[in-house]
Amino acid sequence: MKPVALLSLLTLMLPVALTAGSTVAATDLSFESAALVNEGSLHFLETAPAKPVHHHQNRIVIDANSLESGWVSLSQCHDHLDAVPLAQITFREGFVRNLRVDSAVRIEEARIEGASVQLRNVEPGATLCLSAQTRAFHDTGNGYYNLTNGPYMRKFLDGYYPMQVTLDIRYPAELLKLIDVTPPSQPGFALDERPGLIRVYTTFEGELQTLIQFEKP
What we know:
This protein has a single domain, classed as Sandwich (Immunoglobulin-like), CATH 2.60.40.
């Protein structure tokens, strides 16, 4: 059965209360069987799907200025994009600046329009890389800070398809000490922590939000 429409949401790096972020909307898609859709809540997958799925990769750099301004540097790539005639990636107004397309492969057109990237004729196996600054780092007072990401999702009607998300977060270890990462490390959600570096690699269905908390040492 061919789905009438697919909505794939890839929201990133906004406060948890703000659910608008980076959105990819697609229509008229030849896609996996609707029987594969997960209609439940967040579910981490210990075994990756047999077929490649949308892989959303983010490299985030927090520097000394981020502690004052809240702005961080973002490099973002999307692999195995869904093949659709039209799609868009939209960012919340006021939370993104210096947005640009660094590369687009098997995409006829990828152009910046305001706080969005408009895509036309996305072919199977397409990849897209962007860069920007995002206002995602938050001073919560008394020397504490947090970085919020998500919700990440790949949604069809009322259910979700599997997707992969990779986070590579760099921060100044002399200025910040990691307190906690939510969700915690578990099967399907791999977490690598060391001073100045946090890496997350996960495959899941549903909606994923991450919260990374820091304090001044």
